[in-house]
Amino acid sequence: MSTISLRLPDSLHNELRKLAQREHVSINHLATLALAEKIAALETEEYMLQRTSRADKKRFLRAMKKVAETAPEYGDTLK
User: Fold this and answer.
1) Which one of 39, 47, 50, 54 has the lowest number of neighbouring Cβ atoms within 10 Å?
2) Contact 43, 57 (CB under 8 A)
């Protein structure tokens, strides 16, 4: 495990402290969770951009032609 020194504006530190108290966790734990969520979001964005760059509309339409023309099952409709 690593240790870092982090400079925060007082206002952000105060909000972090309040949230940590409200959630009954340490400031360190809350900051770690927030950082992990941000990293996951950025990595997901990068993954999706990579996937979309490989998209092939012709292949997609060809695959969709294989889908049967049937009504959706009960409860599986758009409202």
Assistant:
1) 54
2) no
Residue 21 lies in a domain: yes
**Do 27 and 16 touch, CB atoms closer than 8 A?**
yes
Q: Which domain holds residue 57?
A: 10-65
Number of domains observed in the structure of the chain? 1
Strands (E), 1-79: none
Would you tell me how many other CB atoms lie within 10 Å of the CB of residue 53?
Answer: 7
Greatest Cα pair distance in the chain = 60
Give long-range contacts, CB 8 A cutoff, 24+ apart: 52-58.
Answer: none
For residue 73, is it within any domain? no
How far apart, in Å, are the Cα atoms of 57 and each of 52, 60, 63?
10, 5, 10
CA dist., res. 79 & res. 76, Å (int): 9
pTM: 0.65
